[in-house]
Amino acid sequence: MAWYVFALVDAVPGGRTGAGLSGPLSLRKLPAGFAVVERRADVPPVEFGSLKKHQDVVARLARAVPAILPVRFGTLLEEDHFDEALAERDEEITDAFNLVRGRVQFTWRSRGRKTDGAARTGKDSKAKTGAGSGTAYLRRAARAANPAPPAAFRPLRTKLSPLMAAQRYQPATLALPEAVYHLVDRKHADRYAAAARALVESRPLLSVTGPFPPFAFAPEIL
After folding, report:
1. Is the preceding peptide bond at 171 cis, omega within 30 degrees of 0?
2. In the listed set 100, 119, 150, which residue is the last one of a domain according to the structure?
3. Which of 51, 154, 194, 211 would disulfide-bridge 104, Cβ 3.0–4.6 Å?
4. What are the tens digits of pLDDT across the range 203-221?
5. What 3-state class would DSSP assign to 5?
6. Looking at the structure, do residues 87 and 46 belong to the same domain, yes or no?
7. Per-residue pLDDT tens over the stretch 65-117
8. Chain centroid to CA 58
9. Residue 181 · residue 205 · CB < 8 Å
10. What is the rounded distance in angstroms from the CA atom of residue 21 to the CA atom of residue 52?
11. Are residues 142 and 213 in the same domain?
12. Domains of the chain: total
């Protein structure tokens, strides 16, 4: 039977690990931490109940460890594929743990913006790839990997930067609307939430949710 993976954590969760989707959770030791897994024969159906259960497990684990890297829903790996997927990723995992340790995520969206999603991003990058020097190309590639938020989101950095540890912008895709994610120290979460509410009151087209586990700051390791 394969392993269904919920998250990577940097320490043994405090208290009882509890249940996963349909069975008990267990830990697989890794050089840089632990994988929280459940024995399962198949991938769960993509439906609200399964998605919510998965997210509830990750949220519960996030409260019980210093650092967590959530793994995307539906990650099911055979024994040999599990070890292969994590081979030589120790440094990447450690760096990611260091980024998210003791921190939570807030998610911002703009209700007033219309985008055409991934199509425009892909078109622009293709048009520019061949032009300019090698240095210019590398700079464009870096911007494409971590694009700057559009103007609608710029007040967030102005008002909230003292309370956030990191920011990431996700352009719209076919499946998801665009979003700005902020990584915030847990000890600052209440202050951040209060400042965010005040900002929403003055800019009603913006909306914020959270705190959440740091889904947007976890690398796609598995």
Report:
1. no
2. 100
3. 211
4. 888 999 999 999 999 988 7
5. strand
6. yes
7. 999 999 999 999 988 888 888 878 889 999 999 999 999 999 999 876 565 55
8. 12
9. no
10. 10
11. yes
12. 2
